[in-house]
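Collaborator request log, item 7. Partner lab (contact: R.S.) asked for a structural prediction of Vigilin to inform their binding assays.
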Amino acid sequence: MSSVAVLTQESFNEHRSGLVADGAGDEEALPTYKDAFPPLPEKASSPDGTQEPANAWTSKIRPLKSSVITQVFHVPLEERKYKDINQFGEGDQAKVCVDIMHKTGAHLELSMAKDQGLSIMVSGKLDAVMKARKEIVSRLQTQASATVAIPKEHHRFVIGKNGEKLQELELKTATKIQIPRPDDPSNHIKISGTKEGLEKAKHEILLISAEQDKRAVERVNIDKVYHPFITGAYNKLVGEMMHETGARINVPPPSVNKTEIVITGEKEQVALAVAMIKKIYEEKANSYTVSSVVAPSWLHRFIIGKKGQNLAKITQQMPKVHIEFTEGEDRITLEGPTKDMQMVQSQMEAIVTDLISRMDYTEIIVDPKFHRHLIGKGGANINRIKDMHKVSVRIPPDNEKSNLIRIEGDPQGVQEASKELLELASRMENERTKDLIIEQRFHRAIIGQKGEKIKDVRDKFPEVIINFPDPSAKSDIVQLRGPRNEVEKCSKFMAKMVADMVENGFSVSVPIFKQFHKNIIGKGGANIKKIREETNTRIDLPAENSNSEMIVITGKKENCEAARVRILAIQKELANITEMEVSIPSKLHNSLIGSKGRFVRSIMEECGGVHIHFPTEGSGIDTVTIRGPAEEVEKAKKQLLSLAEEKQTKSHTVELKAKPEYHKFLIGKGGGNIRKVRDSTGARIIFPTVDDEDQELITVVGTEDAVREAQKELEELIRSLDNVVEDVMTVETKHHRYFVARRGQVLRDIADEYGGVMVSFPRTGTNSDKVTLKGAKDCVEAAKKRMLEIIEDLDAQVTMECVIPQKFHRSIMGPKGSRIQAITRDHNVQIKFPERLDAPGKGPAIENGEANGEVLVTEEAATPVDPAAHKKCDIIMLSGRKERCEAAVEALKALVPVTTEVEVPFELHRYIIGQKGSGIRKMMDEFEVNIQVPAPELQSDIISITGLANHLDRAKDGLLERVKELTAEQEDRSLRSFKLTITVDPKYHPKIIGRKGAIITNIRTEHDVNIQFPDKNDENQVQDQITITGYEHKATAAKDAIQAIVDELEEMISEDITLDARVHARIIGARGKGIRRIMDEFKVDLRFPVPGAADPNQVSVTGRPELVDEAIDHLLNLEEEYVSAVVHSVVYKGRDRGPSKGFVVREAPWQTGTEKAPDMSSSEDFPSFGAPVAATAKASPWGPKRF
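Returned to partner:
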């Protein structure tokens, strides 16, 4: 046995463990000392002259080549570019060398030879030296040039792939080689460089050409149809030919319409390849035929069939035959084996003959502008014609600008479709197109949110086509097309729609502090609903999470103002809010507001969030409203006026004085007079407000010329007003009371309107009819004219009676007398209601809808009471012109509510009433009527509807429509209540329900049924009964679906297997991913034991028999794999390491001789680096020392 030595004694005992085992076999596996520690190579031979044999160290060492090379170039004197001997190392030559070193990275050293030649030593990496050499030759050496002629077809071989060969040649020879372009007929290649380089380059180019001379090129023309036979499947045949002959064969691809096949290579190889190709061609040409079948081009698509179905039947039977259709040609090309070709040709001819016998086509001419109308919206018209007549219609696209429409199909269908299309086109020629200009902002409102409004218009005018422009086009033109009369009607209807939108589209924003929004809404929306109803406006509040404080009111202008006042009043009641109006010329408003409200917003923010309201642009109103806490409002007012003053300094201003009573006359009715002055001069005239100190001051603002003209006109008007005159007119005494009634309200209105004219009536008791008017001449004349108009109306006045039962009077008056006030205003009459019967002698009569109105006194003769006469409390008196009174009487009678009865089945009453009366309230609000449903205990079918006559029909129709809907719902509920049960073993219930109810939910959704499983905790319920409720056919379908699942489950089996409990967690995987993957893969169900189970190793597998077996095999394989991993892990962790013997080697020097193992503590055996060591003749176990 070999001796075994231990390298370490104590220090390495614990360094490694378990590496050495007892036994001779293990010792043989130990490394020898020489293998583990090979000796270093000797530099010199041994004393006896023999070379030491190679060892492990020498065998592994490889000589390394230096990456830096050095080359020396010699430039003779006659070839030097710079020959000035006195400037060697200086001047241009030195600069060139430095530039070459920078550019290439190589190092250059120059020296002068005895013959005045230049020696250049270049050092650096190989590629850098080669580049430097090329630069030296081109820049330090004189250049010569030469040409070499080689065949044109060899030029590409000199260039090489991507020019690589040419670049390599230039670098190798240090020359510049210029090859003529492909379109240049010359075959001369120009070379420039040194003489030595020229010779080298010429030699290399001629070598390349000589090599190519040995090669040959052959071109063979073979019909395209035979190319597939030459290439073979997947180019296999042509590949075999190239491999066999060594030639290169280039067959053009199918997409390239060329017949030429190119063969290149050695002459013998090319000849062999050409012979093989021609042989294949001749064989196939004798057994291959090309033919054609005559078929009109318009029939081609019918021959091919839908998605190529007809053609596929032929090609499947004869796959070797190629059928080609060429667009625009009246033939079909067939290519293939002669035998197959004859059968395919006969089939194709039969199909063509059949189609020609039962198909036809025609072409009609229709102006292209009607094409899109023939097609219809979404192709509706043309698709209808196609389906109805079973034809194909081709209408050319717009870019073709063709008027030819082609119709193909059954002859009769073609004729009928052609006739219908021509009739449509003829009708369109007689139609009229009208462009309606409607602002684009109204387009969306006319169309409606989902197109419902424009649908109503189109239903009303079905013959008119209405086209709106694309929103991106920003056009206001809406096009109407159709019969002349219908287009006119539709145009008027849409114009009225727009007018209503304009009238009701006025919008005003009211800033209200956020904390008061809930008070404006009121409990359950009561406040906001009331304001909306009474002002007939739409009021939009910002969202709760919005920072906006603006409430937007939309509707008619006067209604919006009324709603605004009411909303502001609510805020004013709730907080200490002050409102102040500041007069600022309206022309300054835009500049005060600033871009996007910048200026005014900064003022509002600085002043504690006050609200500043500017009037609508173009309204001409100068009043700006500031609202908020008193101190902050005052602060905002100062800032606003200061800003306005700055803006106003750029304008010219003039002030005039006029008596306050003249102001209204100067302004005129509705601002008419002052508007004329403004329009004619362009100046802005500002009158004082009631809060101004100087009530006589009138300010004129504008350009200097405009102000001067306006000042002149106003001064003339004022002078004429200062000319006071007095005039007298006659007014019959019976009319005096009208003018002086209600504390002289009529006279006050006349004075305000006509420059403060003073009108004096004689005292009561005097029988005088003289009335005095005093004031400016123009004002007096105008006031006098107005009074005469009033007298004329009074003279023509009559009194009429309108008998309406008193119980309807409140309904006729409307909320706060609004309806009666409207009649009074519209018909210019006086209306007086009688006193109530239940309070005789108490309370005044109601006149014109006002409780404090005065009673008109009319003298009537006393007459005895007639029992047949109408009750006094039912008589409403009207005063005014006869025709106006008659119209007002009709209006009053139209307001009398009427009651009608509708028979509705008693069982539907509760559905009509709705939850908490919501249904019936909605109908009453919608139809503006009162609907009375009888009490439940009466069991009556009669519902009473009370309201205006024009509302009753709509309400009755609406109620009957609702009854119809409810009846249909009732019948539907009855059909949906069909029930059936299915008996299913409870153990299958979880499988039918599925994971998280997925399967049962899918069945419920698919069949629209309700499926009820028995309650597990209810002992009284039958546990195997599943109840299905829904339509009978759907319930049956759902039952079949459940039964199918049950049938599948009953086919399944369940097997128990034993799996080591230690591997359960690994099989299940993180969050059950592993077990779900197995169940999905094998379509089985796995059940692992719960903690504390009797047998923790038992696992149940359920599924179809074959799938269960596969799943069990897979699980057992996994168990075997996981268990072995667990065992190895346990063995490794529990291994007893035992005492370590260190690193052991065989045949160590201290074991083979007298030496002992080296002492690791000895500095002699293990010296430190750099420490001096005494010389000794003692032999070392490590070998001879070399230090």
